[in-house]
User: What shape does this take?
Amino acid sequence: MNKDKALLAYTLRLGDNALVLGQRMVELVAAYPELEEELANANFALDYLGQARMFYTYAGELEGKGRGEDDFAFLRDENEYRNFLLLEQPNGHFGDSIAKLVLYESFYLLQLEALVNCADTRIAEIAARAQKEIRYHLRHNSQWLIRLGDGTDESHSKAQGSVDDLWRYTGELFAPDEVDNVFEAEFDGPDLFKIQDEWRSNVAAVLEEATLTKPEDGFMASGGKEGRHTEYFGYMIAEMQYLQRAYPGAEW
Amino acid sequence: MSKKEWPLYEVFIRSKSGLSHRHAGSIHAADDQMALDHARDTYTRRSEGVSIWVVRSSQIIASDPAEAAAFFEPAEDKIYRHPTFYEIPDGVENL
Assistant: This one.
């Protein structure tokens, strides 16, 4: 894989991750039990959609075929999305959503911090902006996981169940493929093994404070980075793409 | 779902360095840290602030409106408490 192809693929993955997680959070808009958390979630979802737009716009420029952010977001098929499987998992209950965010954002923040120093200026600029947003998200969401884990017996057992269920999707975050390797070598990109070590100790610290048990590493699901998704993904993008599919080119 | 309201907090925002904190509104939160987050997410979404204070509404000691007459009216006829009450003699330069 050459340098240019790897950069485009890497940029699109960043966009896909942000879009898919953002869409899952959008599904929760107007569903929160407290007004203030409702606002926080909507703010966070918009942060992700904003990041997706910046990555997609850049991907369109790199590709040079006239595709823009909407083309990438709304007019591709399921197997063209290269997001992590973790992010497309259904929202479940509040503890599931929080556990998903803590596990992912603990990784994403480290990835962004590394990307700030990468050799591609545009990616570095987007990462510099995004890392501030994600640092706050992670702080907020970690506090929630600690409250739930260290809360009542019921919230503790539910939070433990959420972490256990989602753990199998965390292996994919750190399994480098050709795109990751070329991007790391050619653009001074993130070293996933190093990130994995930091992630383990950061996540272990939050789980400990939450009085939760870190699950054993067992079978790890993967495939998102190759476009092989879990059964939930098709339904998610069907809803997300409905408007553009039914009324092509619609704007408002 | 049990519906026990979270405590109320008052939110004070400083819009930029050098100014003082001003009351922005109130929010509900389960603890102090959450109150700070909620204040940030509710009242600084459009870059309104550089610093936030939150304080439990129950911790604020407020004056009693029924005592307003005794509290505030005595100041109304003390115009000599305003600097403009005094005439400055022509010869005074550094005042």
Observations:
- The radius of gyration of chain B is 21 Å.
- Chain B has a mean pLDDT of 89.
